[in-house]
Amino acid sequence: MAEPAHLVTIGEAMVVLYPDHHLPLAEAHSFGSDVGGAEFNVATTLARLGLPTAWVSRLGVDGFGDRVLTAAREAGVDTSAVERDPGRPTGLYVKEPVAGPGGVRTRMHYYRSWSAASALGVEQLRAEPAAALLGGATIVHTSGITPALSDSTAEVAANLRALVGPDTLVSVDLNLRPALWTGRDRAALDSLLGQADLLFAGHEEAHVHFGHTDPARLFADLPHLRTLVLKDEERRASAYRRDGGETHVPCLTVEVVEPVGAGDAFAAGFLAGFAEGRDDTAALRFGHSLAALTLIGHGDRPLTVPTRGERDAIAAAADDVWERWRVHPGDIPWHAPVSAPVDRIP
Length: 346
Hints:
Number of strands: 15
Distance between the termini: 38 Å
Order of helices and strands: EEEHEHEEEHHEHHEHEHHEEEEHHHHE
Number of helices: 13
Strand order of the largest sheet: 5-4-1-8-9-10-11-12-13
Mean pLDDT: 90
Helix content: 25-40%
Strand content: 15-25%
Low-confidence stretches: 332-346
Radius of gyration: 19 Å
Structural class: alpha/beta
Shape: globular
């Protein structure tokens, strides 16, 4: 029997459709497709970095579910705890390019009601093989999207600490989606946040949910929290520790193609740094790097990921070198020697 994965994510995945030639949906006659979903994105990125990772979820017994499983397995993700549901479909979302004063942006249309992932429940996580994966994990990651999907996923979130055990690090990305909470009590989300050892949040969404972004108040209100990562959009990301330590790393300069998935990539990068025993500066840099590699493409996941040697170079770079790096579409894959002076990542 294979050793349990060290990192486990819990949450949905969906197939994404996008119109060819980036046309408005009303004018599109053909579509491309990909796979996305917050916890799926994190799991596949961690696995591509070479970290043993499992993903726990549910998929329909349909071609879309087959597509998701293939993508996960090609990335190296352990999918042994992904169940197929013959009575519910795999979720779907559609990206629509919308022109506006600030340029073209992406509007998302979700078709996830009654999806297989929304039927994820505590029984599945208490049974094998999910129980073995969770019992052997050092880090379990999910997001605020999971408890918003249904009553059963809310129950999973409320019981996550009991499901994973006291010694496992619980990582949560706030991922606040107000539309998912319309007419619903956010108690399940608050319960999940109260179990987190590590919390990722953007400044804006933290303001919306908590009413502030004061680390001291958040540590006081969230008893399990040991590390708080706040992302200040295009400016910087900061890691705050309960003991009072704080680290700030500026964002890379990126020529953005599409922002969808960058937050998931950032979480994966920080978790990779944590899993590899790096300090907070390196973990934040990894988060920025993987977010940048997502921002320069139309997909929801990084176009490529840095090798172990490239991660070493990112971690070791002087601050002034880090701040000069630029990331543009077309830079990938990179092949610059890590010892060479470069103006792009890494």
